Amino acid sequence: MQITFKLYASLTDYLPADRRTSNWMALEIEPDSTIATIIAPFNLPMNLVHLVLINGVYVYPAERATRTLAEGDVLAIWPPIAGG
C-alpha cells in the first residue's frame, strides 16, 4: 500500500537527494508496517524523531513501535525545534 512520508527541518537530509527540496515522498509499505519499521531504512537518529503525526494526529512515543498505517495515510516527522 502507499503512504506519503514527510520529513521537516534538518530531517530532510535523511531523504533521498532528489526529494530533499520537496521534503516528502510516496512510499510503498507492507500493510503491517509500523512507524518504527517505516523510518528504520532512513537511519533517522531517534533523538531527532520528536513530533510524529499521522494525518495530523500526534502519535505518542510509546505507540510508535506498534502503530500501523493505512492506505493513503500521511506520516510526518519533525525534529525538536528551539526558538526564543
UniProtKB/TrEMBL annotation:
> Ubiquitin Mut7-C domain: which residues?
2-79
Source organism per UniProt:
Sphaerotilus montanus
Question: Mind telling me which InterPro entries this protein's record contains?
Answer: Beta-grasp_dom_sf, Mopterin_synth/thiamin_S_b, Ub_Mut7C
Under Gene3D superfamilies, the record lists: 3.10.20.30
Pfam families membership: Ub-Mut7C (PF14451)
Transmembrane regions: none
- Report the protein name in the record: Molybdopterin converting factor small subunit
Highest rank taxon of the organism: Bacteria
